Amino acid sequence: MSEPADRMRRRIEEIFGDDPSTSADERADHGAADERDTPDPDRWFTENRPPHHGG
Fold first, then answer.
1. Counting CB atoms within 10 angstroms of each CB, which of 7, 32, 36, 39 has the fewest?
2. Where are the alpha helices (DSSP H) in 1-55?
């Protein structure tokens, strides 16, 4: 590869990890266990609720 292409690839890997073409649910580890095994499937939404939506 040329130098600019190598630099771009390294920058993409730095930002997205070494395999940006797959998401966590597509990889063998299926993402973090605490995200997968939570009894509340809406946990992310409640933790990230905007302040103007009440609490």
1. 39
2. 3-16, 33-36, 43-47
